[in-house]
Write a structure and sequence with these properties.
alpha+beta; Peptide Deformylase; 26% strand; 181 residues; two-stranded antiparallel sheet; globular
Length: 181
């Protein structure tokens, strides 16, 4: 899992143009890593150090999927505000405003068009993951003051300075759920 401070999280990911076994393997790796965290509902390619425009999701609402070359389509302008965290910033969350509803369009591993509807958590997930693929983090939606405070707290974390951690490692798990350790 790439961590805050790793420059790959700030890269704009490149569109996928070749749909072969490598892209299927990337999707499989993303699901495997997301499920290894036990807390994630989505994961973008740059969160495992890759720069392809791909993300996976499982918001535990009976819709599990992935999208290659995603684009967002807002549905209305109604906002939702809620706590949002990130697997690349383990142990932190922040009230973040997102659209309440959106669709995501893209391609499957064969290059065929796919789309998913999102409302509530799923809409939040789609927006969060597309932000990742655009080199943006959820903390970028906060005021400068709040973001500076959060970044100062992250610099005090035992994982700070690491570019990545195995999501099954004790250090990563302790950051996600300190009361468990």
């Amino acid at each position: 899992m790439t961590l805050w401070g790793n420059p790959v999280l700030r890269e704009v990911c490149a569109p996928v143009t070749v749909f072969d076994k490598k892209i299927k393997r990337l999707v499989d790796q993303l699901f495997e890593t997301m499920y290894d965290t036990e807390t994630g509902v989505g994961l973008a390619a740059n969160q495992i150090g890759r720069t392809e425009r791909v993300f996976v999701f499982d918001c535990q609402d009976d819709v599990v999927g992935y999208v290659i070359n995603p684009t967002l389509e807002p549905i209305g302008v109604e906002p939702q505000t809620g706590g949002e965290g990130c697997l690349s910033l383990p142990g932190f969350d922040l009230e973040t405003m997102r659209l309440a509803k959106c669709n995501v369009h893209g391609q499957d591993i064969h290059g065929n068009n796919i789309s998913y509807e999102g409302e509530g958590l799923r809409a939040r997930c789609f927006q969060h993951e597309v932000d990742h693929l655009n080199g943006r983090l959820y903390i970028d939606h906060a005021t400068e003051e709040v973001r500076a405070e959060l970044e100062a707290e992250m610099r005090e974390e035992p994982w700070f300075g690491q570019m990545h951690l195995d999501p099954k490692s004790k250090l990563y798990r302790a950051s996600q759920n300190p009361e468990d350790y």
